[in-house]
From TrEMBL:
InterPro entries: 6-blade_b-propeller_TolB-like, NHL_repeat
CDD domains, alphabetized: NHL
NHL repeats: 103-142, 202-239
Superkingdom: Eukaryota
GO CC list: extracellular region
Cited Pfam families: NHL
UniProt KW keywords: Glycoprotein, Repeat, Signal
Full protein name: NHL repeat containing protein-like protein
Keyword Membrane: no
PROSITE patterns: NHL
Source species of the chain: Adineta steineri
Coiled-coil annotated spans: none
Length: 250
């Protein structure tokens, strides 16, 4: 764990998890960690006590994790083409419920193909990066059929995606997507999608990415990107005075 503007970790968390693929940090500092590949579980690191507890049983890794405003935990199961969820308010570890996908690979509106990133908004609508279908699906609360909101098959296509992975929805309902196969970050606006980061092709320069996977924002609107094949995390600072452009922080 790092404090802002520091390159030296202030805390290192050790646990008995194997090959974790994702994590999710809540506002109180608790961390949910995927431990599904070998151990079939999601673990929660409790910030107040620095202890671990199992909060979900799964039969595969969770490529994406999310906790919504109702304290429901979501797991995107890449190999099972499905997103599952369970309420963390239930004291007893109950069976997971299906949030999206049939469990069978496909491209119909109720199907997914290798889902990765997930985001749940305040209306409990679920956004899923449907990697194998090169699209982002919106599953409105209580609905099993998704709406394609990004990708060449959307109702108003303004961006072509190549295996999207990470996703975030901001307070203004704008989407930010990690376009993994195109080595860039794209964002929506009133005029459709535009490239924000990595707009000059794959590479290792400060304005380039090479197989980015996930992204996150800080309180000032800067973007942090896991730049996998460059073995680094890149920070891109938001410049409000430059019409929403970003600049690289080395």
């Amino acid at each position: 764990m790092w404090k802002e503007e520091s390159v030296n970790p202030t805390k290192i968390i050790h646990g008995n998890f194997t090959l974790p693929d994702s994590l999710f940090v809540t506002s109180n500092g608790d961390i949910y960690i995927d431990d599904g590949e070998d151990n079939g579980q999601v673990q929660k690191w409790i910030a107040e006590t620095s202890t671990f507890v199992t909060v979900m049983n799964v039969n595969s890794s969770c490529e994406g994790l999310f906790v919504d405003i109702n304290n429901t935990l979501y797991c995107s199961m890449y190999n099972h083409h499905q997103v599952v969820k369970r309420s963390l308010n239930d004291a007893k570890m109950t069976s997971n419920r299906v949030a999206a996908g049939t469990g069978i690979e496909g491209s119909d509106s109720n199907q997914l193909n290798s889902p990765v990133g997930i985001f749940v908004d305040v209306n409990l609508d679920l956004y899923v990066t449907d990697g194998g279908n090169n699209r982002v699906q919106l599953f409105q609360s209580g609905e099993s059929n998704g709406i394609t909101v990004a990708g060449s098959t959307s109702l108003n296509p303004t961006v072509t995606l190549r295996f999207p992975t990470g996703i975030i929805l901001d307070a203004e309902k704008y989407l930010f997507i990690v376009d993994y196969g195109n080595h860039r970050i794209v964002g929506s606006s009133l005029n459709g999608f535009r490239c924000l980061v990595g707009c000059y092709g794959k590479g290792s320069q400060s304005n380039q990415l090479n197989i980015p996977f996930s992204l996150s924002f800080d309180h000032s609107g800067s973007i942090f990107v896991t730049d996998q094949y460059n073995h680094r995390i890149q920070k891109f600072q938001y410049l409000e005075e430059s019409c929403g452009k970003f600049r690289i922080i080395e």
